Amino acid sequence: MARTPKPSEPEATVPETTANVEAPVEPVYTRDDYNAVAGSAELAQIILVSSAFDVKPDYWRCMKERPDSLKHGYDWDLVNYSYSPEQGAAMSNIDFKIDVRCKRKIVLSVDCSYLVIYSGIKEMNKAAVEAFMRRIGRFAAYPYFRAHVSQLSWESNTGLPVLPTIRS
User: Fold this and answer.
1) Is 9 part of any domain?
2) In a domain, 49, yes or no
3) 54-89 residue pLDDT tens
4) Per-residue confidence (pLDDT) for residue 164, from 0 to 100
5) What is the phi-psi region of residue 39: left when phi exceeds 0, alpha when psi lies from -120 to 50, beta otherwise?
6) Predicted local distance difference test score (pLDDT) of residue 112
7) Measured between alpha carbons, how far apart are the two ends of the chain, in Å?
8) Helices (DSSP H) in the chain: which residue ranges?
9) Residue 147 sits in a domain of what CATH number?
10) What is the pLDDT, as a whole number, of residue 3?
11) Is residue 29 part of a domain?
12) CA-CA distances (angstroms) from residue 27 to 52, 80, 126, 145?
């Protein structure tokens, strides 16, 4: 049985059309905008700002008893992006993550964040600068992450495989 609204309550209405609802607009840039950023951008710095490594005792048990059950996962993200058109600088954290699972349990993890800074990009299209940072920032920081993971693997005697190179 439907509830009848009290005289003091407004009736709920459901819009009959969504004609006034607009979809979010994606930032727009042209190939020339992107190429202008790529041609002007100068890598200023790559800085390791955080690193976390965790390996559980189950990792070695799985390595000994069921090495084929270890599944390696990799992910990355661009976070804390900022761009100053007046100063001509863009920066962002590029976060990398590796998880190694034995069955469904995470037995080893590596989390790193690199601050990547580019200069020389005054008054450029903001969407093109962000696209550049998302694509090229990862390529700039990845070799540092790859070397860091290799060092952690050596120090911890975990025998992690060398991370592959990345492609666009």
Assistant:
1) no
2) yes
3) 999 999 999 899 888 899 999 999 999 999 999 999
4) 86
5) alpha
6) 97
7) 59
8) 31-40, 57-65, 126-156
9) 3.10.420.10
10) 46
11) no
12) 34, 17, 8, 30
